[in-house]
Amino acid sequence: MKMAGENQRYQVEFPRMPLAVYRELATHLRQVEGVQTSPIPQQSQEFDYDRSQVGSLWIEYSETVDDVSRQRVEQILQYYRERYGTR
Asked: Its domain of life (predicted)?
């Protein structure tokens, strides 16, 4: 459980999303005030052409982020979910 004043961080994964689109998503999310992102490299030891080079993406909210910014992040993520699915 997160305590008041702490940053909140969670992970999203889009298994079929290409590296360039992960970068686009991260850039899009960082434009929302109070939001930071960081890609997590693919952990699989086997190459799969259909899988992204990025395994997932961390999304972190600062302690000052408001509900409007959180809602905007969800709208952005929904756009990508509709195109690439999620796990």
From this structure: Bacteria
Question: For the chain, which domains are there?
Answer: 8-84 (3.30.70.60)
> Ramachandran region of residue 71, left (φ > 0), alpha (ψ -120 to 50) or beta?
alpha
Euclidean distance between CA atoms 57 and 80, whole angstroms: 13
Instruction: Give how far the C-alpha of residue 7 lies from the chain's centroid of Cα atoms, to the nearest Å.
Output: 15
**For 44-73, what is each residue's pLDDT tens digit?**
677 665 555 778 899 999 999 999 999 999
In this predicted structure, the answer to whether residue 75 has a pLDDT above a threshold of 50 is: yes
